[in-house]
Amino acid sequence: MMKKEIIPILICILLLLYSIGITLLTDYVLNYKHYLGIALIGISTILYFKNKKMFVYIFGLTLILGIISLIDIYYWEILFSIGPINFNPIFLALLITFLVLNKKQLNEMFPEKKLTEQDLTNKNLETEKLIESYQRKFQSKPESELKSIADENSGYVNEAKTAAKRILKTKNVL
After folding, report:
1. How far is CA 45 from the centre of its chain?
2. What sign results for the dihedral spanned by CA atoms 32, 34, 36, 42?
3. Which residue in 14, 28, 47, 145 has its CB near the most CB atoms, within 10 A?
4. In terms of Cα–Cα distance, which of 44, 85, 92 is closest to 66?
5. Is this structure's pTM higher than 0.70?
6. CB environment 87-104: b (16+ within 10 A), e (fewer)
């Protein structure tokens, strides 16, 4: 069973083989961009089998270099420009495919920071201190103003709304 994350590198290899075939059968000559592309795709292919983590980095970098037209893998140069910068849509499509198919591996390499129990406790303590601070400030405000602060659509931060609600609750208004 073939793993789907190999598809982008296989497409690159097929495009390179096709380009090499065209150069052998016609007068077309590869330039330095093609040779850099051949080298980087070769390195990426080896890394795919030897070191998946490095493969993701090197192949990702290869695709980015291709998007901005610093390397090439196809004999026919397909570009679109935004200002002075040229973009290669083949590499753009390959990068999108690569990111989608390697999402699991990328998430392992670049995990989102998860809050620990201690972080959550500290955050809750800070929030509670802020609410208490607002309660002290709002204690002398009239009920009508407290009600407008506590309103969900008021422009106040959540801590201020909570403080106003608590004060209204103690005054038996809510």
Report:
1. 24
2. negative
3. 47
4. 92
5. no
6. ebebbbebbebbeebbee
Segment 108-127, tens digit of pLDDT: 777 776 767 887 888 888 99
Q: Is the dihedral of CA 136, 137, 139, 140 positive or negative?
A: positive
94 in Cβ contact with 66 (< 8 Å): yes
Distance from C-alpha of 137 to C-alpha of 21, rounded to nearest angstrom: 78
Residue 16 burial by CB count (10 A; 0-12/13-18/19+): exposed, middle or buried? buried
Q: Per-residue pLDDT for 161 more than 70?
A: yes
What are the backbone dihedrals phi and psi of residue 82, each rounded to the nearest 5 degrees, phi first? -125, 105
3-state secondary structure at position 157 = coil
